[in-house]
Amino acid sequence: MTGAVTKFAYDFDPLDEALRPPVDETEEDRVIRQAQEAEARRVSQAIDDSIRAEKQAQKKKGIVRLLLLGQSESGKSTTLRQFQRLYTPTAFHEERILWRSVIQLNIVRSVRTILDVLSNLRLPPIDSGGEDSDDGTSNLPHELEMLQMRLTPLRHIEALLIAKLIPPNEDETASVMGSSPLSAYHSHRSRNYEHSWRTQEVFVRPGATWKGALTKGTRGRPVSLGDTGMHTRDEAQEVLNSCNYDIMTLWNDKLVREVLRRRKIRLEESSGFFLNDLDRVTALNYTPSDDDVLRARLKTVGVSEYRCEMEAVAGRESGTEWRIIDVGGSRSQVPTWVPFFDDVDAIIFLAPISSFDQVLSEDRSVNRLEDSVLLWKAVCSNKLLANVDLVLFLNKCDILDAKLSSGIRLSKYVRSYGDRANDMETASKYFRSKFSAIHREYSPLPRKFYGFCTTVTDTTTTAGILASVRDMVVRRHLKQSRLL
Length: 484
What we know:
By secondary structure, the protein is an alpha/beta fold. The chain is 49% helix and 9% strand. The chain contains 21 helices and eight strands. Strand 6, helix 18 and strand 7 (389-395) form a beta-alpha-beta unit. It comes from Rhizopogon vinicolor AM-OR11-026.
């Protein structure tokens, strides 16, 4: 009996049952039903034909779809800015002034990181052997205590900049990591402000929303994108200019450098680091350079498609429309990648190989390099991407070089590296070989490996690499168009 019931359960198809004609259907009803079904099939076919025609039209028009993948802080946003700088230079240059607020926030955040470390610091007695004190007292040198006090205005500037970057309707977006920045701004004089924003990260949605918020003055007056800031009062820039000497003194203090080193806080290795350029970036008439925009740190959340018409470069014909899709790289956003795999021409995957000694901010039990390797395996093995060219950027090679040169042993964190030489050339060859082997082993179909060691903030080397990628993608795109 059980077997018969099981067989019946597996044979039963609710959809088939619903579509079956009524038992008491008349001839007239049958004719009407068949006519309706035929019309439904016609509409469905028309939709399918329209989708196919649109895809073919995109191919003929020269629309190229490029997807940027990689974990958070791998360099995707910087790579996008490099594309914009190289191939839509007019728009890129016009928007440089908008990045000044981002760079101002980067500076303030660097200073706050140092001040937060000092505020929690318990210096050891002279005879304690160099360990932090647990007696609950702080014996900071008087000079550092005075610097802390004089740099207090930066708290207000931080809140002000967050409110400028995140318009009211984007408030919920930036509160991913905690309480709302706008509510923090409105209550920034409260005692809770310092605690609530000490470790919070600021997120914006990718695209033009945050830029649109910055094109309006504090009283709603539109600001020209070409404005250098010389004729528009900028409270944040004025405060940073007045604090220039104190910030420089704080950053160059020997005790501060030693404390940061002991806590393994490497500000100079992070994006958005400008403390070595304070005289220039805190000048009242400061306008960000191309390199400043590329180095600026602005974390994004969500997915956005950037459309740009390639301008004429080096005698080439313009007119190719590129759609570059920038997706979030945090672990919670990785599942959102798959819907964008359809009809993509190429993928640039960024793996920050300098992060071999770091962990994910979302999960501190996971090594960042190990996470990049797992993501690369998943992308290579995905059957939806079997016919898509994958371009690998082994990124942040400048930071990797600096770490190895400082004496940090790669083999301590990557056991398979063994007793190889602890230098940049050997390490880059090792990583390229490992990622290439994964590409070869996990790809559903054989395909060529495109791998580059990159520092995407470096305009000189990146320009040549992106030119090669551009030519490769265009050739592939034209080949597929002819087949269509």
